[in-house]
Amino acid sequence: MNEEIATPKKNNTLLIIVIIIFVVLAGLAVLSYYLLTQKWLGKWQSYENSRYQFSLDYPSNWQLGQAPANNDGREIISPDNQAACSASGFANALTNNLGQPQSLDEYVEWVKSSSADQYLSQQETKLDQNRAVYLEGRDSDIYTDSVYALGNESGVGLVCTYQNLAAKQKYQEVFKRMQESFKINLNLEGEKATETSSCHNLLNRLAAPLKDQQTFSDTEYTEVTTTSRENWDEVRLPADVIDLQNKNYTCSPLPADIDNTQDTNTTSSQPAVSKVEWKCDLEYSDWQYLELDDPKIATLEEDNYSCKKQDCLNDENNLSSVQLCTK
Predict the structure, then answer these.
(1) Exposed, middle or buried: residue 226 (CB in 10 Å: 0-12, 13-18, 19+)?
(2) Which ranges of the chain does DSSP label H, i.e. alpha helix?
(3) Which of 310, 48, 301 has the alpha carbon at shortest distance from 202?
């Protein structure tokens, strides 16, 4: 009788031990990922490219390489120099046999044919909301992860090169997170991307509201789109840009018109810009996004905040609203 009663107790004890081991292993896995992406690699910060209007996040203990003269992108280098990631934009200057701009698939085939890498895999993926293609390559002991997206006018790419297999295993999660963080302010067809943000991003302060935005065109200082911000010729900047930047606006230039009369049938050519569209943004110094029924709204209004509804997209990608309170 006693043995029959003891048997289920032993089974229950064994089950509890198995559950505890599973929980501990799961916790160690989560901790390992955290140490890899947060603590060990440090905090993350953003790189923004004013010419091709894209941005991405990278570990703050990685170093930015020297800014190229044409401001097409930037190299980002690991602390031990075992990995280097290049984020860049490029004009879709090549044409196919029909005289049309290359498609993404045609561009990827050109990349593969013009590289010494042996490509181990190719997959469909995304850069921001744009269709993209991922390539995994190898050239002797050197490994690469790359992803490209392309439109009729321009494209963007992220390429991470690892000095050996151990470096790839160590830093591949960095490449994945860089890809996930990629933001393209203009879509790849040259039209403005949707202004409707995710409600989740707004409530988590991942997007800042604008107090004002000014746009205008300039045909004089067109080289500004191919020059790094720190190397802009202040004397040649439009007076409106100087005036607005003195009022704490952040101004960014974007190619508006391209001179298509030059020869663009070579891989190195970059079509000349004939007109620049300037976009100058002014952010609020103090703001909060809140749920519509958040009781904190009344307190903020008593403290002289101005609150109003703002449209956003919920988790189901349906139109919803949050409350924006500014001061």
Answers:
(1) middle
(2) 2-34, 104-113, 165-181, 199-203, 239-245, 296-302
(3) 310
